[in-house]
Amino acid sequence: MRLRGQVCLVTGASSGIGRALAQRFAHEGADLILTARRRHLLEEVAREIQHSRPEGRLLVLPADLRRPEDIDSLARESLAAFGRVDIVINNAGIGYFAPATELALEPVEELWQVNVRAPMLLTRALLPSMIERRSGTLLYVASLAGKYGVKEGSVYAATKFALRGFAWSVFQEVRQHNIRVIVLCPGSTATPFGGGVGSGSRSERILQPEDVADIALAAVLLPPTATVSELELRPTNP
Fold it and tell me: Which residues are catalytic?
């Protein structure tokens, strides 16, 4: 229970990496705020967590991160419920893959809204209270695509490059306030988004959501005087 008394907000908590993050952080005693668009999936995750850890506090706040007003409400209701948020995990993300010659405007704009603008706005909303307390952790789930690019994934890669740039710049602003900023860059992961699920041999060889969650947890559990700025995660034998 190394996170007992800590309040953790996880975006994209209804499935995949976000779901695994919520479960791992709950296991360590954190009080949780779970958000995603689909309420019924969030409530399913919440039931699983409460069954395994009935004493913890947990709040389900569905939100559409494409909508700035939903982000403002998410931050406001989180602070009203718990008084603070100690750990913000910006995990929610969507993908769009097409050759550069065939890009369509609508998905390009949607990727920017969810993958970049939403973490920016959520950071803006919750960072002042962290600065006031002189403590906190901001964790951003980017991607190896945001470091090296990916064929026919130029827009997705660009959003993750942008997220990394934002996170690194925020770190320069907030480290003087004892606030840590961590960027995770996973490779292919066995989720519906990242690489499929199931019992096939490839699915079993690529990263599992629990792998990413374990590494994120290890980074957060470092002493408060130290931080891991960025981590690249790859399957050992893809």
Answer: 156
